[in-house]
Write a structure and sequence with these properties.
Length: about 290
């Protein structure tokens, strides 16, 4: 069905209006002024027994369905999905074996936030990176930008949303710790201010030379709210090697140009529409005139 001029302009105006926000505003990654005082969690892989209490608590708190095998016998996901925001994995290698917890890293200055053209993702001053589903336009830039591969799409749905751990932002607002941390029975996962978590992590490294002498997340991607210590190399646990540079400083200059590029394309498209519409009207009028003359 041919689109009317009114509907065409309405659609173009809506798209350009949303994009103009990202072009004129400053980068939307609200980097906390006091990152050391923001919410943080420390995961000690040497204390994790793989009970998956954190995984179950996450699903219960977030109302996420269980993903099972074909016979519904056991929890099936081998990676984070739209229905699994926290996942315990087991790694085996020549240097040993270890469980490790996977979830959103809640970067101090998140790349996912910086590339979102409609501010559907937001870094709160308290620490969590949260998602506003009512703003999302489904571009999935966040999935491409995240260096840790965290945001997941609801691929099975007609209008898929982005899903990921939100650091239990509602619980934090009530003065409670994240559900995963509250459920951990061994102390492998502890919660507090980032400064405290870093201090605890470095104390454990100093007191036990068997640990890899590095706190993963302290500097990666400019720093993250999730921090890790382990007695196995982080690469063998599946952690990517990430630059210490905060990624929005790289992505923002390019993202700022996107709305203007789209604006130029929309302007050209509008001009083409009017040009072709005028030719169609002229041709139709000519045909009607020729028909009446005959």
């Amino acid at each position: 069905m041919p689109i009317s001029r009114r509907n065409f302009l309405k659609l173009a105006g809506t798209g350009l209006g949303a994009l103009a926000i990202s072009a004129t505003a400053a980068p939307v990654s609200a980097k906390p002024l006091q990152a050391d005082e923001s919410a943080s969690m420390l995961y000690d892989a040497s204390l994790c027994v793989g009970c998956r209490a954190c995984q179950t608590a996450c699903k219960r708190r977030s109302g996420l369905p269980h993903e099972t095998d074909s016979q519904n016998l056991y929890e099936a996901p081998t990676d984070l999905t739209a229905d699994t925001w926290t996942l315990i994995k087991l790694y085996k290698g020549d240097d040993g074996m270890s469980f490790v917890k996977n979830q959103c890293m809640h970067c101090i200055d998140p790349a996912c936030v910086s590339v979102c053209p409609v501010a559907a993702l937001e870094k709160t001053a308290a620490g969590p990176v949260i998602y506003h589903k009512e703003r999302c336009i489904g571009c999935r830039y966040c999935m491409a930008a995240c260096p840790f591969g965290i945001p997941k799409s609801q691929w099975e749905k007609t209008f898929p949303l982005i899903q990921k751990c939100d650091f239990c932002a509602d619980r934090l607002a009530r003065g409670e710790e994240p559900a995963c941390g509250a459920a951990c029975p061994t102390g492998a996962l502890i919660y507090g201010q980032r400064r405290e978590m870093l201090s605890t992590a470095h104390t454990r490294l100093e007191n036990d030379s068997n640990f890899i002498q590095h706190v993963y997340g302290e500097t990666e991607a400019g720093g993250t709210s999730m921090l890790y210590i382990s007695k196995l190399k982080f690469a063998s646990l599946g952690f990517p090697e990430v630059s210490d540079l905060d990624l929005p400083s790289i992505t923002w200059p390019y993202m700022k140009a996107v709305p203007w590029v789209v604006g130029i394309v929309a302007t050209l498209a509008t001009g083409i529409y009017f040009r072709t519409h005028r030719l169609d009207v002229h041709a139709t009028g000519k045909e009607e005139h020729d028909g009446s003359a005959s």
